[in-house]
UniProtKB/TrEMBL annotation, chain A:
Species assigned in the record: Streptomyces aurantiogriseus
Domain of life: Bacteria
Name of the featured protein: Phenylacetate-CoA oxygenase subunit PaaA
One GO location term (cellular component): cytosol
Record lineage: Bacteria, Bacillati, Actinomycetota, Actinomycetes, Kitasatosporales
Region Disordered: start-end pairs: 1-31
From TrEMBL, chain B:
Encoding gene per record: paaC
UniProt-recorded name of the protein: Phenylacetic acid degradation protein
GO cellular component: cytosol
Lineage: Bacteria, Bacillati, Actinomycetota, Actinomycetes, Kitasatosporales
PANTHER family xref list: 1,2-PHENYLACETYL-COA EPOXIDASE, SUBUNIT C, PHENYLACETIC ACID DEGRADATION PROTEIN PAA
GO BP, one annotated term: phenylacetate catabolic process
Pfam families (alphabetical): PaaA_PaaC
NCBIfam families in the cross-refs: PA_CoA_Oxy3
Superkingdom, natural source: Bacteria
Database matches in InterPro entries: Aromatic_CoA_ox/epox, Ferritin-like, Ferritin-like_SF, PaaA_PaaC, PaaC
Gene3D superfamilies, per database record: 1.20.1260.10
């Protein structure tokens, strides 16, 4: 996709380097200049383009963490599939959890364009060397939590992800465009679920309020630490992986949620929340960063449960994956077919 | 009057099959052996739930029927209520049921009965379900020694529930003997290609023959319903 003149030297000279026709250092500098120019011109970096090692590493880390969040994020919602209170809601929830698996697949594919593999990334997730979003370490205790996750958690994810549709790395940006469309749909469904509860019986209304009370602060934590404590922010913004700071996006999210909460007929659990005429934004209370750090360290309410279930699914599925591989090997040799072995007489 | 009643009985039988199997497949969410199977199993579950909603709505209010009937009033086959077991059990159950459903809907789609419209749409979904089950039966049966053993065990364990699929259902004008023969041929062909042995036991025992259709179920079913209905029953009259 990136074809402007500024971007071309990187490719040309990369090939030159393989021929041994350019000195390593000089080539590296030219690559770096071409990369910087492409980023400055808002072009997309594509898998075969030269990129700084640190840029590649940052993207692998971020995309993998994003993919892991999609698949761990299936758990808190899948927890309610078998108990969904109407067939319509059950269908919506199943479709949503299925979409999340699909998002995980897109994102692992995007990460693989950077030279890593899904198996390797899953292994890092299972051994705790890569993380997933802190939010999925909170439990879904009632049906209303499914709505609160749709409205608040997906809402926060969308606020975070819409700018990623313009991220400098092409495969990631394109994955985000597809994902954001589906996420917006989920978010509206979550809002609608909460609205039905809020307008339902007193018990249903209370259930909705309780869920919002429990999910509000963890949702605000999804934007990451405050700007002055965010380790990767400045570099990611220079590389145009990130387009806005954590605090900026968090503020945007709060401003969006306040009127939505009002029309839902629910309150947000923050006594300091109020409109600030001067700033043109809502002020809000302090976030409990100690809790955030504890959850990230593995001490949240469901960290152990989530990773154990993921590992168990993977381990218990090993014989199935081995069977598929053995079958493919047998049938590709026998019939001279490709690796899939799907072909049958 | 009689026509409505028999159509209702058939809608309940077919609707309960789809509802209960969809629920079982929904239990896999987050537990599948590979991400692609998370997508596939949820996809099949959703198709079945869609069929269930149409069928139950032909018989009454879908939510009342799903959430407020007790175990003895459900008309599903015992096959579809069987617990997921390992992946091989789930696949064997899918192979047996989707082959049956495909034959059934293909026949209903050509008629002009009350189910022709639904069957014409559903037969396309079910063809995909059957293909999925067949492909996995081949992979597990003709994969490793371990997967072969597990697939054979699953096929054997579920065999005694297959006869019930060919008991006549009130309100369905289907030649069930002919369908059983077609089913045996189709399933037998897949099992043989998967290097598996077609189970040689009876397709149904004295207890299982036609039992689910009469509201006689297996023990795990009551627990499944308890989970499925709990929230709905806890809030009588609420809408969701």
């Amino acid at each position: 996709m990136a074809t402007a003149a500024a971007h071309q030297p990187a490719r040309t000279q990369q090939h030159g380097a393989h021929d041994g026709t350019a000195g390593a250092t000089g080539t590296e500098d030219a690559h770096q200049r071409a990369f910087d120019a492409a980023v400055a011109a808002d072009e997309r970096i594509e898998p075969r383009d030269w990129m700084p090692d640190a840029y590649r590493a940052t993207l692998v880390r971020q995309i993998a963490q994003h993919a892991h969040s999609e698949i761990i994020g299936m758990q808190p919602e899948a927890n309610w599939i078998t108990r969904a209170p109407s067939l319509r809601r059950k269908a919506i929830l199943m479709a949503k959890v299925q979409d999340e698996a699909g998002h995980g697949l897109y994102l692992y594919s995007a990460a693989e364009t950077l030279g890593t593999g899904r198996d390797e990334l899953l292994d890092k997730l299972h051994t705790g060397r890569q993380k997933y979003s802190s939010i999925f370490n909170y439990p879904t205790l009632t049906w209303a939590d499914v709505g609160a996750i749709g409205w608040l958690v997906d809402g926060a994810a969308i606020t975070n992800q819409v700018p990623l549709c313009r991220c400098s790395y092409g495969p990631y940006a394109r994955a985000m465009i597809r994902i954001c469309k589906e996420e917006s749909f989920h978010q509206r469904q979550g809002y609608e679920l909460l609205l039905a509860l809020s307008r339902g019986t007193p018990e249903q209304h209370a259930m909705a309020q309780d869920a919002v009370d429990r999910w509000w602060w963890p949702s605000l934590m999804m934007f990451g630490p405050p700007d002055d404590e965010s380790a990767h922010s400045a570099q990611s913004m220079d590389w145009k992986i990130k387009r806005h700071s954590n605090d900026e996006l968090r503020q945007r999210f709060v401003d969006i949620c306040v009127p939505q909460a009002e029309s839902l007929g629910l309150t947000l659990p923050d006594p300091d929340l109020r409109w600030n005429e001067e700033r043109g934004h809502h002020d809000f209370g302090p976030i409990d960063w100690t809790e955030f750090k504890e959850v990230l360290k593995g001490n949240g309410p469901c960290n152990e449960q989530r990773i154990t279930q993921r590992r168990r699914a993977h381990d218990e599925g090993a014989w199935v994956r081995e069977a598929a591989a053995a079958y493919a090997a047998k049938h590709s040799t026998a019939a001279g077919h490709g690796e899939t072995g799907v072909e049958q007489a | 009057m009689t026509a409505t009643t028999t159509a209702t009985a058939a809608a309940l039988a077919l609707g309960d099959d789809a509802l209960v199997l969809s629920h079982r497949l929904g239990e896999w969410a987050g537990h599948a052996p590979v991400l692609e199977e998370e997508v596939a199993l949820a996809n099949i579950a959703l198709d079945l739930l869609g069929q269930a909603r149409v069928l139950l709505s032909m018989a009454g209010d879908e939510d009342e029927l799903a959430y407020l009937r007790e175990e003895r009033a459900f008309r599903n086959l015992q096959l579809v209520e069987q617990p997921n077991g390992d992946f091989a059990h789930t696949i064997a159950r899918q192979l047996y049921f989707s082959t049956h459903q495909h034959l059934l809907y293909a026949r209903l789609a050509t008629g002009d009965g009350p189910f022709a419209g639904l069957a014409a749409k559903a037969v396309k979904e079910v063809a995909y379900h059957r293909d999925h089950a067949e492909q996995w039966t081949l992979r597990l049966g003709d994969g490793t020694d371990l997967s072969h053993q597990r697939m054979q065990r699953a096929c054997d364990a579920l065999w005694r529930f297959t006869g019930e699929m060919f008991q006549p259902v009130e309100g369905l004008d289907i030649d069930t003997e002919d369908m059983n023969a077609a089913w045996l041929e189709s399933v037998g062909d897949v099992l043989r290609r998967a290097t598996l042995t077609v189970p040689d036991g009876p397709q149904s025992g004295a207890w299982t023959a036609g039992a689910g259709r009469q509201g006689l179920h297996t023990e795990p079913f009551g627990r499944m319903l308890a989970e499925m209905q709990h929230l709905h029953r806890s809030h009588p009259g609420a809408s969701w």
